[in-house]
Amino acid sequence: MKRIKKIGLTVSFICCMLMASCNLIDFSEDCTYYGDVEIKPDWSGLAQDDTRPALTDIYLLSPQRNYMYSITSDTLVTDVQAVNYKVLAFNSYGLGNINFSGMDCPNTAKVELNTSEGNGRLYTVQAPALYAANTDLTVIPFERVLSQPALKSATRKINIDFVVIDNSGVGVSSINGELSGISYKYGFKQLDALESAAWLAFDTQRNIEKDNVFSSTLEVFGVNPDKQSEERTDNLLDIALEASGGNTYYETIDLTNVFSGFITRIINISIEIRLGLMGMEVAITGWNVSDGGIIEL
What we know:
By secondary structure, the protein is mainly beta.
């Protein structure tokens, strides 16, 4: 009887030691611990003309375990493995012409706009209102931690005004354009958009108050590439102007130097077009950037 009691005490002692081994202050590597994460997306960087997306995608990525959530508001998630994570936050719901890939790793996670080929050129489309964040998080065993990824606009806005000075008397019916060096990929690794380049075709609208002004707004991930790179792509603007009489005039203007300082969310460009009997002359008359939300590269 005494032996049985002794065995029982020994077994109890061993169980207690095993339980204690997973609760040491330095946390044994042989045990898996869990904590809670309170996720509060920071949308203070939302552009004035944009509305907050209905869903926010939250990816917690680590070599040990990945977690994925789509949340509508501040959310508490429980039983998250207690390790270091890279937090990717973005909005994917309702976005068109865009594909997400490599989202299981922060170094490969990226989005890519649709592209097509025509006339020997690669064309992309205008970027949707994508917001993104890339930050770090450490989940502490048996505790609750706060994650507040600050989402910022991944898109830039290019406003172009074409001011027509008509000395020919024929008038202008429409102006179209194609701009090269437009990024169609966006990488989450450094929140950059400088890994690709394509052409973007666009139309313009005649100004209601000034019928000699034709305007267009382009939403892009960025202009590519880094101006210090040997493989940089120039930003060329091909203009096609259709006169009221049916004639079409073509001209190309180099905007590379204009875009070299484009680090804010919005750039406004004014281009003057002079029509004469000898054809069309095009010149940049001014440009400026506005702080509609700084983009961090």
